[in-house]
């Protein structure tokens, strides 16, 4: 199913209700499969838009947030040796990794909109969003990794591959 088909099938009232539902705090819900489906569609749409962006604009010129400089410098101070070209899920998911990520992420609360909102992150930056190449991350983790990939030239491979197709 195309990502637009799911939202279109909701109609205006349904899409409006979905937008409202996604803005409520997580504590307001149990494990509602409809909400999970809406979240998945929103996360997928975000990923698709971002990938199209780095495919069509030279990544080093992209500005993802007003805090890009702060996010990047803090990220590289905190995660000096993190291989961002090919991330491992353990870099984000192991208990030790979470203990390093938590204070990093929390310092952006109030600075980065929806800083802890769930998003999709590519593991290998030279590949697209596939089931094998995608993991869940918070929005500020996504920004930190992708800002670094853009500034350090790792996302250039996606841009150049798309330019060769054109």
From TrEMBL:
Gene Ontology cellular component list: cytoplasm
Domain of life: Eukaryota
InterPro entries membership: PBDC1-like_dom_sf (IPR023139), PBDC1_metazoa/fungi (IPR008476), Polysacc_synth_dom (IPR021148)
Domain Polysaccharide biosynthesis positions: 35-159
Pfam family, one: PBDC1
PANTHER family: PROTEIN PBDC1
Name listed for the protein in its UniProt record: Protein PBDC1
Organism: Betta splendens
Organism classification: Eukaryota, Metazoa, Chordata, Craniata, Vertebrata
Name of the gene: pbdc1
């Amino acid at each position: 199913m195309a990502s637009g088909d799911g939202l279109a099938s909701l109609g205006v009232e349904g899409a409006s209700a979905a937008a409202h539902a996604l803005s409520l705090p997580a504590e307001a819900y149990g494990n509602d499969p409809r909400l999970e489906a809406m979240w998945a569609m929103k996360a997928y749409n975000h990923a698709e838009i971002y990938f199209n962006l780095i495919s069509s604009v030279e990544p080093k010129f992209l500005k993802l947030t007003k805090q890009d400089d702060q996010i990047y410098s803090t990220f590289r101070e905190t995660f000096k040796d993190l291989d961002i070209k090919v991330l491992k899920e353990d870099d984000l998911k192991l208990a030790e990794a979470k203990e390093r990520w938590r204070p990093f992420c929390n310092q952006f609360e109030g600075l980065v909109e929806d800083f802890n909102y769930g998003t999709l992150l590519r593991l290998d930056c030279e590949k697209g969003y596939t089931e094998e190449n995608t993991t869940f991350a918070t929005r500020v983790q996504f920004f930190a990794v992708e800002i670094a990939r853009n500034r350090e030239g790792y996302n250039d491979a996606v841009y150049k591959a798309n330019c060769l197709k054109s």
